[in-house]
Amino acid sequence: SSIVSFHRGRSPWYQFLRQTSYAAIGAVAMFVAYRFRLSIVNQLGRLFFVLGALFMLAPLAPGIGTTVNGARAWVEFGSWSLQPAEFVKLMLIVWGADFLTRREDELGNLRRGVWPYLIFTGLASGIAAYQSDIGTCPVIGMIGITMLLLAGAPFRPVLGVASLAGFAGYLFVRSDPNKYARLTAFLDIHGTRDHEGRQVYQA
After folding, report:
1. Mean pLDDT over residues 40-44, rounded?
2. Is 130 helix (H, G, I), strand (E, B) or coil?
3. What is the mean pLDDT of the chain?
4. pLDDT band at 196 (very low <50, low <70, confident <90, very high)
């Protein structure tokens, strides 16, 4: 916020200008992507998803990765920091749209149409869980489930996998007091506003 920036000796406009610059970069990237032919986007999606999954492992490397709010899911380049999982989320949609379109007639065949996509989704979600990123992990899972349902995959098997994954995720979070405290911080926004619930309080 502008008040926090001011107390840290920065301009009150620091966060606004920073977010505006990110929005400008995103607008340029969106326009460039819009001009690409769909066939090129599909080919790049397959390549970038693999590269993104590998890049997602970068935060685990000594000297590159950094821990934020208990999650070792960020990499730093000088004064810049980014979260590789954000690219994986995008590529999961771009590559997934291409893959599920090509397997449209085989979605009824779980082995051919559903499991390959779920395996990659689970791999990305599993890496996020290993990094203790309990926010990104379910988001990746929900992207995968949503993509399958929108593509026309059988509802019951997908719902069954989602239920099992959700239950496993709950057990994983419940086994760690710190993770569970972060997950339930919204129940006491004012009491946790200086640590676990800071983002919720600011929102």
Report:
1. 79
2. helix
3. 83
4. low
Among the listed residues 31, 161, 162, 49, the one whose alpha carbon sits nearest the alpha carbon of residue 97: 49
User: In 3D, which of 81, 95, 151 has the Cα closest to residue 123?
Assistant: 95
Strand order in the sheet with 65-68: 65-68, 71-77, 80-82
CB atoms within 10 A of CB 88: 29
- Which residue, among 143, 141, 124, 30, has the nearest Cα to 85 in the 3D structure? 124
Are 189 and 200 in contact by the 8 Å Cβ rule? The answer is yes
Query: pTM of the full predicted structure?
Result: 0.79
pLDDT in tens, 9-20: 777 777 788 889
User: How far apart are alpha carbons 176 and 172 in whole angstroms?
Assistant: 7
Of 145, 51, 69, nearest to 100 by C-alpha is 145
Write down the H helix ranges in the chain.
2-7, 14-35, 38-55, 85-102, 115-130, 136-151, 155-174, 177-183, 198-202
Residue 176 region by backbone torsions, left for phi larger than 0, else alpha for psi between -120 and 50, else beta: beta
Decide: 81 and 66 in contact? Cβ < 8 Å.
Answer: yes
